[in-house]
Specification:
Layout: E1 8-13, E2 16-17, E3 20-24, E4 27-31, E5 35-39, H1 42-50, E6 55-56, H2 60-68, E7 80-81
Parallel strand pairs: 1-5, 1-6
Antiparallel strand pairs: 1-2, 3-4, 3-7
């Protein structure tokens, strides 16, 4: 990954890019590839990547429809992404 000249899309949380965690067997890569644009919605970054904005780190299920439609292709197929904790906040009842 260090020698790759990737420019791409990174999801953003609180205006900070989300670090990529990749694993292949016992090998692990952790870092933040250079990004031209950032977004805070998984669907938004998938649509931007499908429209040529660059590489996106995406969970297989969320990208599957784009791959089937030929809009995205999987890169680094031998590498797996690591789970990222997510939180959701809902308004209380009144």
């Amino acid at each position: 990954m260090r020698s790759a000249s990737t420019t791409g899309v990174c999801p953003a949380t609180h205006r900070q890019p989300l670090e990529w965690l990749l694993q292949r067997g016992k090998s692990r890569w952790e870092g933040l590839p250079p990004a031209r644009v950032m977004g805070n919605s998984p669907d938004l970054v998938l649509r931007m990547a499908a429209n040529g904005a660059g590489i996106v780190l995406a969970e297989h299920g969320s990208a599957e429809s784009y791959v089937k439609a030929g809009q995205l292709v999987r890169v680094l197929p031998e590498w797996e992404i690591q789970p990222v904790p997510l939180s959701a906040v809902f308004p209380g009842r009144r």
